[in-house]
Design a protein that fits this description.
It is built from 8 helices and 7 strands. The chain has 248 residues and is an alpha+beta fold. The strands form 2 sheets. A 5-stranded mixed β-sheet has the order 2-1-5-3-4.
Amino acid sequence: MNLTLKIWRQKGPQAKGKIVKYKVADISEHMSFLEMMDVLNEQLIYSGDEPVAFDHDCREGICGMCSLYINGEAHGPDKGVATCQLHMRKFKDGDTIYVEPFRAKAFPVIKDLVVDRMAFERIQQAGGFISVNTSGNTQDANAIPISKHAADEAMDSATCIGCGACVASCKNSSAMLFVGAKVSQYTLLPQGQVEASDRVINMVTQMDLEGFGNCTNTGACEIVCPKGISLQNIARLNSEFLKASLKG
Protein backbone atom coordinates (compact mmCIF):
# COMPACT_ATOMS: atom_id res chain seq x y z
CA MET A 1 0.00 0.00 0.00
CA ASN A 2 1.00 3.61 -0.61
CA LEU A 3 -0.28 5.94 2.10
CA THR A 4 -0.34 9.60 3.05
CA LEU A 5 0.26 10.24 6.74
CA LYS A 6 -0.70 13.49 8.43
CA ILE A 7 1.06 13.40 11.79
CA TRP A 8 1.10 15.80 14.72
CA ARG A 9 4.63 17.14 15.29
CA GLN A 10 5.50 19.10 18.42
CA LYS A 11 9.07 19.64 19.63
CA GLY A 12 8.19 19.98 23.31
CA PRO A 13 5.47 20.70 25.89
CA GLN A 14 5.65 24.47 25.38
CA ALA A 15 6.25 24.40 21.63
CA LYS A 16 3.55 25.07 19.07
CA GLY A 17 2.59 21.88 17.22
CA LYS A 18 1.33 21.29 13.70
CA ILE A 19 0.24 18.55 11.33
CA VAL A 20 3.00 17.45 8.92
CA LYS A 21 2.36 15.38 5.79
CA TYR A 22 4.45 12.33 4.90
CA LYS A 23 4.29 9.66 2.22
CA VAL A 24 5.07 5.99 2.81
CA ALA A 25 5.19 3.30 0.15
CA ASP A 26 5.11 -0.50 -0.08
CA ILE A 27 3.38 -0.97 3.26
CA SER A 28 2.25 -4.56 3.79
CA GLU A 29 -1.29 -5.18 5.03
CA HIS A 30 0.26 -7.65 7.50
CA MET A 31 2.24 -4.93 9.27
CA SER A 32 1.04 -3.56 12.58
CA PHE A 33 0.40 0.19 12.76
CA LEU A 34 3.55 0.67 14.82
CA GLU A 35 5.61 -1.29 12.29
CA MET A 36 4.34 1.12 9.65
CA MET A 37 5.47 4.00 11.90
CA ASP A 38 8.87 2.30 12.17
CA VAL A 39 9.11 2.28 8.37
CA LEU A 40 8.33 6.00 8.30
CA ASN A 41 10.97 6.73 10.94
CA GLU A 42 13.60 4.71 9.09
CA GLN A 43 12.75 6.77 6.02
CA LEU A 44 13.07 10.03 7.98
CA ILE A 45 16.37 9.03 9.59
CA TYR A 46 17.79 7.99 6.20
CA SER A 47 16.90 11.39 4.76
CA GLY A 48 18.42 13.23 7.74
CA ASP A 49 15.11 14.30 9.30
CA GLU A 50 14.06 13.87 12.92
CA PRO A 51 11.96 10.72 13.48
CA VAL A 52 8.45 10.92 14.90
CA ALA A 53 8.39 10.31 18.66
CA PHE A 54 5.74 7.81 19.74
CA ASP A 55 5.40 5.67 22.85
CA HIS A 56 5.51 1.88 22.91
CA ASP A 57 6.85 -0.99 24.95
CA CYS A 58 5.48 -4.53 24.86
CA ARG A 59 3.63 -4.29 21.52
CA GLU A 60 1.36 -7.05 22.80
CA GLY A 61 -1.66 -4.98 23.90
CA ILE A 62 -0.77 -5.24 27.58
CA CYS A 63 1.10 -2.10 28.66
CA GLY A 64 -1.15 0.58 27.11
CA MET A 65 1.77 2.85 26.19
CA CYS A 66 1.19 2.82 22.42
CA SER A 67 -1.95 4.95 22.62
CA LEU A 68 -2.55 7.05 19.50
CA TYR A 69 -5.52 8.93 18.08
CA ILE A 70 -5.92 7.59 14.53
CA ASN A 71 -8.41 9.12 12.10
CA GLY A 72 -10.38 10.56 15.00
CA GLU A 73 -10.55 7.32 17.01
CA ALA A 74 -8.57 6.26 20.06
CA HIS A 75 -6.41 3.29 18.96
CA GLY A 76 -7.84 3.52 15.44
CA PRO A 77 -10.65 1.83 13.49
CA ASP A 78 -10.37 -1.69 14.93
CA LYS A 79 -12.26 -2.65 18.09
CA GLY A 80 -10.98 -4.33 21.23
CA VAL A 81 -7.31 -3.72 20.43
CA ALA A 82 -4.59 -1.27 21.38
CA THR A 83 -2.70 0.66 18.68
CA CYS A 84 0.09 -1.93 18.60
CA GLN A 85 -2.45 -4.64 17.66
CA LEU A 86 -4.01 -2.56 14.89
CA HIS A 87 -2.97 -3.94 11.51
CA MET A 88 -2.64 -2.14 8.21
CA ARG A 89 -5.28 -4.36 6.59
CA LYS A 90 -7.78 -2.00 8.24
CA PHE A 91 -6.68 0.63 5.70
CA LYS A 92 -6.72 0.79 1.90
CA ASP A 93 -4.14 1.70 -0.70
CA GLY A 94 -4.13 5.47 -1.20
CA ASP A 95 -5.65 6.26 2.20
CA THR A 96 -4.82 9.41 4.14
CA ILE A 97 -4.30 8.64 7.82
CA TYR A 98 -4.33 11.28 10.54
CA VAL A 99 -2.21 10.42 13.60
CA GLU A 100 -2.41 12.54 16.74
CA PRO A 101 -1.62 12.23 20.45
CA PHE A 102 -4.36 11.71 23.03
CA ARG A 103 -5.84 15.11 23.86
CA ALA A 104 -6.60 15.98 27.49
CA LYS A 105 -5.54 18.69 29.92
CA ALA A 106 -4.29 15.98 32.27
CA PHE A 107 -2.24 14.35 29.47
CA PRO A 108 0.17 17.12 28.35
CA VAL A 109 2.14 16.45 25.18
CA ILE A 110 5.82 15.68 25.83
CA LYS A 111 6.87 15.45 22.19
CA ASP A 112 5.06 14.65 18.94
CA LEU A 113 2.74 11.71 19.76
CA VAL A 114 4.03 11.10 23.29
CA VAL A 115 1.89 12.33 26.19
CA ASP A 116 2.55 12.39 29.93
CA ARG A 117 0.08 10.00 31.57
CA MET A 118 1.62 10.15 35.05
CA ALA A 119 -1.73 11.50 36.24
CA PHE A 120 -2.97 7.90 36.14
CA GLU A 121 0.02 6.78 38.22
CA ARG A 122 -0.68 9.44 40.84
CA ILE A 123 -4.32 8.30 41.06
CA GLN A 124 -3.09 4.73 41.60
CA GLN A 125 -0.66 5.88 44.27
CA ALA A 126 -3.49 7.69 46.05
CA GLY A 127 -5.31 4.45 46.79
CA GLY A 128 -5.10 1.81 44.08
CA PHE A 129 -3.56 -0.84 46.30
CA ILE A 130 -4.12 -2.93 49.41
CA SER A 131 -1.86 -2.94 52.46
CA VAL A 132 -0.54 -6.46 52.81
CA ASN A 133 0.93 -8.00 55.94
CA THR A 134 4.35 -9.28 54.91
CA SER A 135 5.50 -10.21 58.42
CA GLY A 136 5.49 -13.92 57.71
CA ASN A 137 2.06 -14.44 59.24
CA THR A 138 0.11 -13.73 56.09
CA GLN A 139 -3.17 -15.48 55.46
CA ASP A 140 -3.30 -17.90 52.55
CA ALA A 141 -5.36 -16.27 49.79
CA ASN A 142 -6.99 -19.63 49.03
CA ALA A 143 -8.38 -19.67 52.58
CA ILE A 144 -10.58 -16.63 51.85
CA PRO A 145 -13.86 -17.72 50.21
CA ILE A 146 -14.73 -15.66 47.13
CA SER A 147 -17.69 -16.35 44.86
CA LYS A 148 -16.89 -17.09 41.23
CA HIS A 149 -19.15 -14.23 40.14
CA ALA A 150 -17.22 -11.71 42.28
CA ALA A 151 -13.87 -13.11 41.18
CA ASP A 152 -14.85 -12.93 37.50
CA GLU A 153 -16.12 -9.36 37.81
CA ALA A 154 -12.99 -8.29 39.68
CA MET A 155 -10.83 -9.86 36.99
CA ASP A 156 -12.83 -8.09 34.27
CA SER A 157 -12.13 -4.76 36.02
CA ALA A 158 -8.47 -5.60 36.57
CA THR A 159 -7.90 -6.04 32.83
CA CYS A 160 -7.75 -2.23 32.46
CA ILE A 161 -4.30 -1.38 31.08
CA GLY A 162 -4.48 2.34 31.86
CA CYS A 163 -3.97 3.40 28.24
CA GLY A 164 -6.15 6.50 28.55
CA ALA A 165 -8.41 5.82 25.55
CA CYS A 166 -11.40 6.48 27.79
CA VAL A 167 -10.08 9.96 28.59
CA ALA A 168 -9.15 10.73 24.98
CA SER A 169 -12.58 9.77 23.65
CA CYS A 170 -14.62 11.54 26.33
CA LYS A 171 -15.89 15.04 25.51
CA ASN A 172 -15.14 15.97 29.14
CA SER A 173 -11.78 14.15 29.33
CA SER A 174 -13.17 12.13 32.20
CA ALA A 175 -11.11 9.40 33.89
CA MET A 176 -14.13 7.82 35.57
CA LEU A 177 -13.88 4.53 33.67
CA PHE A 178 -10.22 4.12 34.62
CA VAL A 179 -10.80 5.02 38.27
CA GLY A 180 -14.00 2.94 38.37
CA ALA A 181 -12.12 -0.11 37.11
CA LYS A 182 -9.30 0.33 39.62
CA VAL A 183 -11.71 0.82 42.52
CA SER A 184 -13.91 -2.08 41.42
CA GLN A 185 -11.15 -4.67 41.29
CA TYR A 186 -10.67 -4.18 45.05
CA THR A 187 -14.26 -3.44 46.02
CA LEU A 188 -15.41 -6.82 44.72
CA LEU A 189 -12.88 -8.79 46.78
CA PRO A 190 -12.67 -9.21 50.58
CA GLN A 191 -9.02 -8.17 50.61
CA GLY A 192 -10.05 -4.70 49.46
CA GLN A 193 -12.69 -4.03 52.09
CA VAL A 194 -10.43 -2.80 54.91
CA GLU A 195 -9.35 0.35 53.09
CA ALA A 196 -12.41 0.67 50.84
CA SER A 197 -13.63 4.06 52.10
CA ASP A 198 -10.24 5.75 52.13
CA ARG A 199 -9.37 4.26 48.76
CA VAL A 200 -12.33 5.64 46.82
CA ILE A 201 -12.21 9.07 48.51
CA ASN A 202 -8.48 9.44 47.91
CA MET A 203 -8.57 8.24 44.29
CA VAL A 204 -11.51 10.46 43.32
CA THR A 205 -9.91 13.44 45.07
CA GLN A 206 -6.66 12.88 43.16
CA MET A 207 -8.59 12.44 39.90
CA ASP A 208 -10.17 15.87 40.39
CA LEU A 209 -6.83 17.43 41.32
CA GLU A 210 -5.32 16.13 38.07
CA GLY A 211 -7.87 18.10 36.05
CA PHE A 212 -9.99 15.30 34.59
CA GLY A 213 -13.59 16.22 33.74
CA ASN A 214 -16.83 14.73 35.00
CA CYS A 215 -18.70 11.80 33.47
CA THR A 216 -21.92 12.58 31.58
CA ASN A 217 -22.65 8.96 30.59
CA THR A 218 -22.19 9.25 26.84
CA GLY A 219 -20.55 5.81 26.81
CA ALA A 220 -17.75 6.64 24.36
CA CYS A 221 -15.20 5.37 26.89
CA GLU A 222 -16.59 1.83 26.92
CA ILE A 223 -16.77 1.72 23.11
CA VAL A 224 -13.10 2.60 22.55
CA CYS A 225 -11.65 0.70 25.51
CA PRO A 226 -9.33 -2.01 24.11
CA LYS A 227 -10.21 -4.26 27.04
CA GLY A 228 -13.96 -3.65 26.96
CA ILE A 229 -14.16 -2.23 30.49
CA SER A 230 -17.86 -1.86 31.30
CA LEU A 231 -19.68 1.33 32.31
CA GLN A 232 -20.89 -0.68 35.31
CA ASN A 233 -17.56 0.20 36.89
CA ILE A 234 -18.52 3.89 36.84
CA ALA A 235 -21.82 3.08 38.53
CA ARG A 236 -19.94 1.07 41.16
CA LEU A 237 -17.48 3.93 41.67
CA ASN A 238 -20.35 6.38 42.25
CA SER A 239 -21.97 3.98 44.70
CA GLU A 240 -18.74 3.39 46.63
CA PHE A 241 -17.96 7.11 46.72
CA LEU A 242 -21.43 7.94 48.06
CA LYS A 243 -21.18 5.28 50.78
CA ALA A 244 -17.72 6.47 51.79
CA SER A 245 -18.84 10.13 51.87
CA LEU A 246 -21.85 9.34 54.08
CA LYS A 247 -19.63 7.32 56.36
CA GLY A 248 -17.59 10.44 56.91
